[in-house]
Amino acid sequence: MKKDTITITDMKNNLPSVLEIVDKKGRIVISENNQAKYVLTKVDEPFIELTDNEMLEVVAKRILNEHIKAFKELAK
User: Fold this and answer.
1) Model pLDDT, residue 32
2) Which of 5, 10, 23, 38 is in Cβ range 3.0-4.6 Å of 30 for a Cys bridge?
3) CA–CA separation, 6 and 31 (whole Å)
């Protein structure tokens, strides 16, 4: 078994250890019958529901901030 993969049975029996791995690695794959079935992921930021327009606004601002120099150059 890979260190980033655990069985459902092991997860049920060792949840604190599994959460420790998720805290360190960010995620862990949970398998059933030797097949990946779930991914348990650490959430670093509070989960907030956004509307489609709000998501577009966040992405647009991120793109603008990342490429502001190019946008300014194109505006000349």
Assistant:
1) 92
2) 38
3) 6
**Is residue 23 packed enough to be buried (19+ CB in 10 Å), middle (13-18) or exposed (0-12)?**
exposed
Q: What is the pLDDT of residues 22-67, one digit of tens each?
A: 999 889 999 999 899 999 988 876 677 888 898 899 899 999 989 9
What's the domain range around 13? 5-41
The answer as to whether 35 is a domain residue is yes
Tell me if 18 is assigned to some domain. yes
Total domains present in the chain? 1
